[in-house]
Amino acid sequence: MSDKNQYGMRTVAIHAGEEPDPVSGASSPNLVMSTTFVADADATFSAEAMEDETCWIYTRWGNPTVHQLETKLAALEGAETAVAFGSGMAALFTLLIHTLKSGDHAVISDVAYAALSETANEMFPQFGISITRVDTSDPENIRRVLTPRTRLVHIETPSNPLLRITDIAASAEVAHQGGALLSVDSTFATPAATRPLELGADFVVHSLTKYLGGHGDALGGAILGSEERLRDVRRKTAIRAGGVLSPFNAWLILRGLATFPLRMRAHGDNALKVASWLEGHPAVKRVIYPGLPSHPQYELARRQMKNFSGMLTVQLHKNAAAARTLAEHLKIIHYAVSLGHHRSLIFYLGTDDLLQTTFKLTEEQLKSWRRYAGDGVFRFSAGLEDPEDLIADLEQAFARIN
Ligand SMILES: *Cc1c(COP(=O)(O)O)cnc(C)c1O
Q: Which of 2, 97, 266, 393 has its CA 20 to 30 A from that of 144?
């Protein structure tokens, strides 16, 4: 796999980062759990002085199995390199503490992953870092709040949970004109839909726990970008912060990645079928799915996404009663948090709860949230089951809502 550009995504997903083992000839990746590697006499004990990432010393600095995963992720994302983390949040947190210091300013999407929102609202201001939350679905909102101290613009597209889309190329242009870097949380989109680095982003962040691992059995995260920027992220921050990925999880995620492009097609097909069925159901008030013409940014979604992914939200006329009914009566679909697994998942996100605990928004932002989400949404992660079975499961549970 020396020339990655020559192969399609399905081939890359299977072969990138995986050479037969030179000692045993093993065709599938070995799992190297060793924390420590026997060094030669002139090995250095400083991460910053490390010459070659494939000269193994200590697993917090780098590990062969984790490195195989990083190579495959980079190939899928069209990135020069990747750094893997123990979770998506460890990746996001490391990126923020790496790029921001006291006195700096960052712009973060007002709808972003809950734990990131809390970090941005509560933690970073304590470090003397100011953060402005804006609705990035209009990049002009980013331009308006840029200051000479703005170092980073962070967007999430589609956003969790509202599925709002942000124009990556336009955001990159605005950020760069203001002298800031652009990072994109592409967990919902995945590289099957969008490759943000090709649209001008400086960093891409993934929760590998979701579609990339794909089976709900391994937490993981990654930052991807250029060799130059990521070398510093790894040596100056990731290795010291220590939120590295377990080799065992790397091995599970590597295995999940082999089928990633095929899974994304099936996730997208199932989500579209379920979303279309939901749109015609009398219990349903509103469905938001980037692959439906009713999505307020359908044109942008079509332009920016090659696959609409498997996430949709649905509002019911009797949201609150329905949450209990669905939790008790769904047979196949699990009533549970998280997303991107082979198994379909649904979970109710009440607007008041979320806004009180997680998102500290201005009046205008609150209105915009309610315009999208009403008093709450069910976040549905379409799995890989037969779509007829998913629809039948929803139908029998909906019939019990009263
Ligand atoms: C889940 C998620 C994260 C956090 O990932 P973890 O692996 O749970 O730490 C970050 N961003 C988005 C969009 C997510 O869905």
A: 97
If DSSP states are collapsed to H, E and C, what string results for 6-30? Answer: HCCHHHHHHHCCCCCCCCCCCCCCC
pLDDT tens, residue by residue, 22-70: 999 999 999 999 999 998 777 666 666 665 555 899 999 999 999 999 9
CA of 71 to the centre of ligand 1 (A): 21
Q: Report the CATH number at residue 293.
A: 3.90.1150.10
Whether residues 173 and 37 share a domain: the answer is yes
Q: Average model confidence (pLDDT) for the chain?
A: 94
What mean pLDDT do residues 336-362 have? Answer: 88
Ligand 1 within 6 A of CB of 99: no
d(CA 394, CA 326): 8
What is the structure's pLDDT at 256? 98
Rounding to the nearest 10 degrees, give the CA dihedral for residues 19, 22, 25, 31: -70
Peptide bond into 161 cis (omega under 30): yes
Q: Ligand 1 within 6 A of 119 CB?
A: no
Domain boundary among the residues 200, 230, 257 is at 257
Last residue of a domain, one of 237, 257, 277: 257
Q: Are 82 and 73 in contact (CB under 8 A)?
A: yes
Is ligand 1 within 6 A of the CB of residue 156? yes
* Alpha-carbon dihedral 99, 105, 106, 111, rounded to 10 degrees: 140
Q: Are residues 264 and 171 in the same domain?
A: no
Q: For residues 361-379, give the mean pLDDT.
A: 87
Asked if 252 and 267 sit in the same domain, the reply is: no
Q: Give the residue-averaged pLDDT of 359-364.
A: 78
CATH number for the domain harbouring residue 18: 3.40.640.10
Number of domains in the chain: 2
pLDDT per position as a tens digit, 133-161 = 999 999 999 999 999 999 999 999 999 99
Domain identity same for 184 and 216: yes
Cα distance between residue 205 and residue 196, in whole Å: 10
Judge whether 205 and 88 are in contact, CB under 8 Å: yes
Residue 16 domain boundaries: 4-257
pLDDT for residue 389 is more than 80: yes
